[in-house]
Write a structure and sequence with these properties.
Layout: H1 2-27, E1 34-47, E2 52-65, H2 88-117, E3 119-131, H3 136-139, E4 147-151, E5 154-155, H4 162-171, E6 178-184, E7 187-193, E8 196-197, E9 204-205, E10 208-216, H5 221-248, H6 250-253, H7 260-273, H8 278-293, H9 301-314, H10 320-347, H11 350-353
Helix pairs in contact: 1-2, 1-7, 1-8, 2-5, 2-8, 2-9, 5-8
Length: about 350
């Protein structure tokens, strides 16, 4: 289920990106004849008054098609509402709209995250966001949202490392009862739980995830929007910094470049720990998608914007044959890189590693 949830998130991000292009064109009354999610053979399609909407077999992207170069199009070549006949600014808006849509979507995800889950704040003790079903903690009556304020009569106060202190007490007590004092809303509860040795890690565990912060409800809409903006800004800086490090130190950072297979695997791991992690995962991947697409590389939105910039400077576009050659080369290289990364990440999947 977590894998399907992550795939659903990626599909949504692709849809948002292509919807940005589509809406920017439609709002300017530019002709659009195709809106597709995925590539390759068509699995489902619907023909609207002007646009064909399709879902295709290879879910590694999508595209918005224009009738400018469609030989079957009945629109006259000199129609002012063809994309190629519009001013540079109009075309730049359409091309950049996918990136803008992904960035706006990322911000809205943070708004939704904090609005639903609250704002994380330091807590006196150790917050328990999730209890594993049928684990020692679950059987002892510990619930999601409890705060451990003492363990074996040792107070767990506000401060860095308090979660490690609790972990140490649990690890040191295999098959021995540990007395925990819990804060559950406005009540204090005492429970006894017996850690069991994990067959995978070999350490005593009780089946809980830990955090030194706990969610606080949002006070008002202004706080919600400002906190989401701060988080959006921080994550955008992190992604941009990672992109810069990749280009300035490619030999060491190239191993961190992942295919959709790797993204799904990492997202599934996060969401299996706590489904709430899908919120920041969706926002960060959306920012990544925007950053990658704005790069001035052939076959990406940034590459097309680079062509428009050259056209604006020269006063006329580059020869169409040159543009097509550059774009086809870029597509070929990106597809090759994508196939390589997919094969590499597939062979490194944990499920396949365990078969060796």
């Amino acid at each position: 289920m977590t894998v399907l949830a992550v795939i659903g998130v990626l599909a949504l991000l692709i849809f948002v990106h292509e919807l940005g292009h589509f809406m920017a064109a439609r709002l300017q009354k530019i002709h659009v004849n195709r809106f597709s999610i995925g590539f390759g053979p068509i699995l489902w399609k619907f023909q609207g008054p002007e646009t064909e909407y399709a879902l295709r077999a290879i879910p590694l992207g999508g595209f918005v098609g224009f009738p400018d170069d469609d030989p079957e199009s009945e629109i006259p070549p000199n129609d002012p509402d063809l994309l190629r006949n519009r001013p540079v600014l109009d075309r730049a808006i359409v091309i950049s709209a996918g990136v803008i849509a992904n960035m706006v979507f990322a911000y809205l995800v943070f708004v939704l995250q904090f609005g639903i889950l609250g704002v994380p704040e330091p807590v006196a003790g150790v917050y328990i966001p999730q209890v594993v079903a049928q684990s020692p903690a679950d059987l002892a009556g510990i619930q999601n949202g409890d705060v451990v304020i003492a363990a074996n009569a040792q107070r767990l106060d506000l401060g860095e490392g308090v979660d490690k202190k609790l972990i140490g007490i649990i690890h040191d007590s295999p098959n021995q009862s540990v007395n925990l004092t819990l804060q559950r809303k406005d009540k204090e509860l005492d429970v006894a739980v017996t850690p069991q040795v994990s067959p995978t890690s070999g350490e005593a565990v009780i089946g809980i995830s830990l955090s030194t912060v706990a969610p606080r409800p949002i006070r008002n809409p202004i706080e919600l929007l400002s906190i989401a903006a701060v988080q959006f800004q921080e994550q955008t800086k992190l992604v941009a910094g990672g992109m810069l490090a990749l280009f300035t130190n490619f030999s060491e950072m190239s191993g961190q470049v992942g295919s959709p297979v790797k993204i799904v695997e990492q997202g599934a791991k996060l969401s299996s720990e706590n489904i709430r992690f899908l919120f920041p995962f969706a926002a960060i991947i959306s920012i990544n998608l925007a950053m990658i697409n704005i790069l001035p590389l052939p076959a990406l939105d940034g590459g097309q914007l680079a062509f428009l910039l050259i056209e604006a400077i020269r006063g006329k576009p580059l020869p169409m044959r040159l543009q097509e050659s550059v774009m086809q080369t870029g597509i070929f290289l990106l597809l090759g890189l994508g196939i390589f990364l997919i094969i590499r990440d597939t062979t490194q999947l944990e499920v396949l590693q365990n078969l060796r």
